[in-house]
């Protein structure tokens, strides 16, 4: 049994020290996941990878029970996703200037889809996809938000790599 799994089991039983000891063990891996996800966001983010990891960790520990290492990282990917979606919605709200008029720049050749709108569209599409295909949607979350490889995601989900590849191809189509 890995140290992470042991600490997760202890934290599930209410051991606060185990939850505190867990963060240093998973911090670097969570920070890599958060940094990879934030790299896809537009510049000028108010959230950085450290803040995102801390927010996700606070949402996870003490509020959920985990069946192991894989379940914890799947939940972390979901927490990161939800935090980024909440952040995107806040930025688009009228209170935060989301409805303000902006001056157009003569830089059409540099135009790219707005990451906030792209993230919200992905979020809505993933929710609809999860209604019909929950396991495939979970694979997408692990690959896209957690940055796991196909083999790592297959291990977390308890499916074979070839099944994960088929699910990934289906989800992408």
Question: What integer value in Å does the Rg equal?
Answer: 18 Å
The gross shape turns out to be: globular
Helix share, percent: 55-70%
Provide the residue-averaged pLDDT. Answer: 80
Give the oligomeric state. Answer: single chain
| Uncertain segments | none
| Terminal residue distance | 38 Å
**Count of DSSP-assigned helices:** 8
State which percent range the strand residues make up.
Answer: under 5%
Report the count of strand segments.
Answer: 0
SSE-based structural type: mainly alpha
Largest sheet: none
SSE string: HHHHHHHH
Please characterize this protein's 3D structure.
The termini are far apart. The protein has 173 residues and is mainly alpha-helical. α1 crosses α2 (16-38) and α2 packs across α3 (49-60). It has helices spanning 3-12, 16-38, 49-60, 69-92, 115-132, 134-144, 150-157, 161-172. Helices cover 68% and strands 0% of the residues. The chain contains eight helices and no strands.
Which key terms come to mind for this protein?
0% strand; 8 helices
Secondary structure layout plus pairing:
Blueprint lengths: L2 H10 L3 H23 L10 H12 L8 H24 L22 H18 L1 H11 L5 H8 L3 H12 L1
Helix pairs in contact: 1-2, 2-3, 3-4, 4-5, 5-6, 6-7, 6-8, 7-8
Short description:
The protein has helices spanning 3-12, 16-38, 49-60, 69-92, 115-132, 134-144, 150-157, 161-172. It has eight helices and no strands. The model has no long low-confidence stretch (mean pLDDT 80).
């Amino acid at each position: 049994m890995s140290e992470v799994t042991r600490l997760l089991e202890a934290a599930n039983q209410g051991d606060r020290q185990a939850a505190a000891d867990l963060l240093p063990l998973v911090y670097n891996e969570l920070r890599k996941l958060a940094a990879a996800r934030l790299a896809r966001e537009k510049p000028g983010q108010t959230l950085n990878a450290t803040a995102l990891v801390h927010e996700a960790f606070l949402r996870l520990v003490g509020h959920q029970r985990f069946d192991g290492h894989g379940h914890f990282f799947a939940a972390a990917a979901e927490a990161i996703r939800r935090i980024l979606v909440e952040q995107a919605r806040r930025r688009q709200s009228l209170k935060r200037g989301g409805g303000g008029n902006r001056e157009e720049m003569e830089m059409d050749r540099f135009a790219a889809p707005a990451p906030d709108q792209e993230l919200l569209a992905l979020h809505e599409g993933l929710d609809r996809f999860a209604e019909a295909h929950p396991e495939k949607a979970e694979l997408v979350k692990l690959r896209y938000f957690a940055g796991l490889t196909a083999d790592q995601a297959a291990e977390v989900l308890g499916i074979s790599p070839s099944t994960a590849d088929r699910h990934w191809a289906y989800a992408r189509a």
